[in-house]
Amino acid sequence: MITGAGTINALGQSVPETLTAMQNGICGIGPLEFRDVERLSIQIGGQVKGFEAEGLFNRQQMTLYDRFTQFTLCAAKEAVAQSGLEFAGELSARSGVVLGTAGGGVSTWDDNYRSVYEDGKNRVHPFVVPKLMNNAACSHVSMEHNLKGPSFTVSTACASSNHAMAQAFSMIRTGMAEVMVTGGSESMLCFGGVKAWEGLRVMSKDACRPFSANRNGMVQGEGAGIFVFEEMEHAKARGADILCEVAGFAMSSDAADIVMPSKQGAARAIAGALADARIDRSNVGYINAHGTGTAANDKTECAAVADVFGPHADDLMISSTKSMHGHLIGGTGAVELLACIMALRDGIIAPTIGYEEADPECALDVVPNEAREARVDVAISNAFAFGGLNAVIALRKAP
Amino acid sequence: MSIRDKVYEIIAEQAVLDVSDVSDDSTLESLGIDSLGLVESIFAIEEEFDITIPFNANEPDKSEFDISSVASIIAGIEQLVAAKP
Fold first, then answer.
1. Per-residue pLDDT tens for A46-81?
2. Where are the domains of chain B?
3. What's the pTM value of the predicted model, to 2 decimals?
4. Structural contact between residues A191 and A40, judged by C-beta atoms closer than 8 angstroms
5. Residues of A with CB below 8 A from B41's CB?
6. Letter string b/e over residues A113-150, b meaning 16 or more CB atoms within 10 A of that residue's CB
7. B65 in contact with chain A, both atoms CB, cutoff 8 A
8. How far does Cα A159 stand from its chain's mean position?
9. Within an 8 Å CB–CB cutoff, is residue B42 touching chain A?
10. Considering only CB atoms, which chain B residues are within 8 Å of A201?
11. Is residue A199 within 8 angstroms of chain B, CB to CB?
């Protein structure tokens, strides 16, 4: 059961702010602001603005927290507060943290490379390594909330946080843990981070328009999404407010290409998640798509959905909220899970904004441009990573 | 070395072929260059001629830069080189 949620992303610095923005179809993508941005050919992104880390963390913390860790800690604080849990004694020992990130402390790498290569310095800050390591955020969450159970970070590019949440769920289901703090985060919006992505030539210079025939690529975002996953009886016994149920998941590997997605791999993960959750495909009302806005992803994903669902593919809704918050890479599945929770809990389906032109190869109900009210009992969230690693999570309305 | 010779060299290197296997009529596909190989070739050309090629892998056909054959690639490069300040 999910009993807490927290986030920070381009749409808002809390879950309520983010959901309100999704309901209103707000676009959080805009001009990037950081050093040397004028040397980039891609100058837009879903950047978190108005975030004053100095006011939230003390000097010692600031020397240890990369921006991706800062985002993670803010989101974790919101999620744990909502759950109402306090971790002490036996519960502390039986609760852990599994988070996803693709890049970890990218801006820490960037700043320090700049300092030694460009500025010619021969010394870097002593905490560069503990600040940039991919598990830094996970470790700081464990320290902040006294979580002493199984904890680690997974890194599977764009599927990182879905893989992380799948692990957290699996640990609770198998009895390894009582409560897991899980999700993911990313902060690659710095000169080096965006420069690396530019090279692939898959980024849009103007907007992220998933499924729209005139789409021209992905747009990066940043932020974190963190959840409290809690064993059902534990949650019920304390009368916790349950946001929704994690019903099942599946993972698959395309074993085909390092960047091009495969329909078969995606379809196996979607069908596998439903089988794991023992959910009949006709009950799925909403899919939060991977929907990157690239030609390669969107066509393949729609074909995979059509394959798995057959005629029911035309009855369900599928939207990509990346059109609003951008692609958070390793943190994206976590922020997108919020759209699934909103569908199940509030009966509001987040739209795919920027949708301008129908594409016959993406002929599904993509909830274009405006949110919609609908009763949804089952939602799934897709994540298909570079490297062909797929992770799909199935969620059910709270009991 | 002319632009044509240099482009032949870059494309042959990418395709792991001999320069003599490349002709103006060759398409990247016929030389066995896939989408990743294309992006790499464009990068190598940009580096070699110090130009920026307007190319988006999401819509290769809509790009102002015509990649339909080796000849069209060379023509595109010649234009970009001529337009250099």
1. 999 999 999 999 999 999 999 999 999 999 999 999
2. 3-82
3. 0.94
4. yes
5. none
6. ebbeeeeeeeeeeeebebbbbbbbbbbbbbebbebbbb
7. no
8. 8
9. yes
10. 39, 42, 55-57
11. yes
Q: Which CATH superfamily is domain A2-237 in?
A: Thiolase/Chalcone synthase (3.40.47.10)
Q: How many CB atoms lie within 10 A of CB A212?
A: 24
Nearest to A188 by CA among A87, A59, A84, A45: A45
Which of B56, B59, B62, B67 would you mutate first to test chain A, the one with the most A CBs within 10 A?
A: B56
Do the interacting molecules here have an ipTM over 0.90? no
A294 touches chain B (CB under 8 A): yes
* Residue numbers of chain A with a pLDDT score lower than 70: none
Which residues of A are catalytically annotated?
Answer: 158, 290, 327
| CATH H-level superfamily of B3-82 | ACP-like (1.10.1200.10)
- Nearest residue of A to residue B54, measured between CA atoms: A201
The amino acid at A91: L
Give the C-alpha separation, A149 to A399, whole Å. Answer: 27
- Provide, as residue numbers in chain B, all residues whose Cβ is less than 8 Å from the Cβ of A202: 56-58
Do A246-396 and A2-237 have the same topology in CATH? Answer: yes
Q: Domain A246-396 has what CATH class?
A: alpha beta
Rg (alpha carbons) of chain B, rounded to whole number: 12
Q: Residue B63: is its pLDDT beyond 80? A: no
CA A389, CA A391: separation in Å to the nearest integer?
Answer: 7
Q: Per-domain residue ranges for chain A?
A: 2-237, 246-396
